[in-house]
């Protein structure tokens, strides 16, 4: 009986040693995969930082372009309004002093 138990324990130790070796190999593979994925995540984070900086740069450039366009548009509207007011006022003045038979109306 003792010999039988000893044989059983030897098989158990052998099985455990094999399981330990298999788990060590799997652990090594998982560590390699973890390092690879960590590197990939770091690369993605770096790419994201670059893209975010580019986005901010583009946003600032567009803000400046829209501001310049708006300034030009407001200048043009003011110029148009001033011209329109001048013409309207000129017509009013001419109509007051005109004999109403000329073409200034």
Keywords:
mainly alpha
Provide an overview of this structure:
By secondary structure, this protein is an all-alpha fold. It has 1 helix and no strands. It is rod-shaped and about 140 Å long.
Structural class: mainly alpha
What is the N-to-C succession of helices and strands?
H
Poorly predicted ranges = none
Integer average pLDDT = 88
- Sheet-strand content, in percent, reads under 5%
| Oligomeric state | single chain
Strand runs, count: 0
Tertiary shape: rod-shaped
What is the element layout, followed by pairings?
Blueprint: H1 2-97
Short description:
With 105 residues, the protein is mainly α.
């Amino acid at each position: 009986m003792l010999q039988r138990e000893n044989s059983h324990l030897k098989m158990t130790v052998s099985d455990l040693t094999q399981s330990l070796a298999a788990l060590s190999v799997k652990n090594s593979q998982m560590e390699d995969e973890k390092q690879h994925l960590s590197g990939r995540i770091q690369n993605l984070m770096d790419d994201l930082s670059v893209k975010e900086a580019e986005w901010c740069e583009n946003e600032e450039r567009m803000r400046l372009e829209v501001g310049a366009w708006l300034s030009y548009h407001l200048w043009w509207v003011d110029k148009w309004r001033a011209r329109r007011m001048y013409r309207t006022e000129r017509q009013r003045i001419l109509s007051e002093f005109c004999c109403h038979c000329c073409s200034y109306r």
